[in-house]
Amino acid sequence: MTATRTFRIAAIPADGVGAEVVAAGRAVLDALAADSRADSQGAFAFDWQEFPWGCGYYERTGKMMDDDGLERLKDFDAIYFGAVGWPTVPDHVSLWGLRLKICQNFDQWANVRPVHFLPGVQSPLRKADDTELDWVVVRENSEGEYAGLGGRNLAGRGQGGEVAVQSALFTEVGCERIMRFAFDLARTRTRRKVSSVTKSNAQQYGMVLWDDVFRRVAADYPDVETESVLVDAMSAKFVLRPEDLSVVVASNLNADILSDLGSALAGSLGLAASANLNPERRFPSMFEPVHGSAPDIAGQGLANPIGAVGSAALMLEHFGLPDQAARLQKAIEATTGAGILTRDVGGSASTEDVTKALIDALNA
Ligand code: GGG
Prior knowledge:
Organism: Streptomyces sporangiiformans
Radius of gyration: 21 Å
Domain Isopropylmalate dehydrogenase-like: 8-358
CATH class of the largest domain: Alpha Beta
CATH architecture of the largest domain: 3-Layer(aba) Sandwich
Strand content: 15-25%
Family: Belongs to the isocitrate and isopropylmalate dehydrogenases family.
Cofactor: Mn(2+); Mg(2+)
Distance between the termini: 25 Å
Enzyme class: oxidoreductase
Shape: globular
Bound molecules: glycylglycylglycine
């Protein structure tokens, strides 16, 4: 009999619908683990610790997370995150105080965001009905437009006189590692292609450096097709020629915007999964749905848990459990295919209904 592998997971539901979707994801993962114990083949379990950080915590303490938060997180096997942001706290304070603090300090430099079309979910794209569509956005997650470099000054000039500078940082090291990651990922896919996205006609320093590094790295992968596309043209391509995409690599901001577009094209932001990876495994990686905290529907049982559960599948892959990840993905497809859908994708099921259906599908 093989020993049970126990994964220590830090759960950070944070704000709004984050609480509902993390609870759903935990229930589905625990059901999967319970089943693995029953047949004792490659059994695994989860040891959860939940952290109360987020905007509510900020209102009580003046901090989005504890000062020793990173120290407390660093030895977990992974972080399972919900969503950050609430109208009572400025968005830049909540984002930098929690999600970006974790991503940047744990050098989670690769943010993987698959664009996955699911059975039973209507896409606004007409060609999604009869064309195989499946691509993944690889977001540079440590620098670029999110480097946090700059400042505000000269407020002393009075109303209307203040200035602000926000610089983007592009390093050869940062560009090269995310591009190699994208090329290695492309080699695992049916279509071996990497599309690099910039706005290097206008951003003539950082993004031209990105293009130069892309050409240099591409030379090491002669078996992988490439293209370099400006972000405006790539937005159009997402809508008009998505069948030509496989791996799309882009800077922090461009990839954030493109992946939201991709999720919307797949039917809803509520469906999209993501992994913030520290590929060297010096720090825990963080798995979270792409969507935010959705204050308009929070606490009403309306949130779509599929993005969070899909992120759990990415976490299982990271743990070296691809068969379990595939099982979870099949349960997602069985659930949406059976028409058990939340409101954002045209159904009337609650978060709880979808969670129960996912667990039933695992056991079917
Ligand atoms: N679960 C993802 C999340 O909470 N996102 C909040 C957000 O505003 N993110 C912006 C960003 O990370 O660029």
